[in-house]
Amino acid sequence: MSKNATTLVQCNATSCSGDQGYSGLVTVNDTNLTVSMTIESVQGKDESMWTCHVDFGEESKEAKATCLLFIFVPPEKPVCDHTLNESHVLITCSTAKVYPKATCRWNASSVPKVRSRSYSHPVSKDPVFIFNTTCTAVFPVTNQTE
């Protein structure tokens, strides 16, 4: 096992025990000796490299399987707003409850290049580790009569 790895749950042919936060997620089917883990309320901390070690035999032989768990939470529908003044138009686009941090892409035909762009990613107060994302773009206002 890796030096940085932590054993969360240990199972035998009939039951599992271990870390209180994870032991209830692992079940053993003693008919065919399969072990499975179900994470129902996924959190950002669950995004990790997961390894199942199977020890067998008297010579401490081991087999293992590894999988990388990625967490994705699609954003809510973005809300856009704009403010116009004499020199520029400020467009703000916000979305909530997204993981990992989102970025914005601004597309439009016949619009001058974006002068500045900024992002903010405050963490939501939701129990799952997710972000709210706000993107702003500034477009210069040009005199169309010249």
From TrEMBL:
SUPFAM superfamilies named in the record: Immunoglobulin
Protein name per the record: Ig-like domain-containing protein
Organism encoding this protein: Lymnaea stagnalis (Great pond snail)
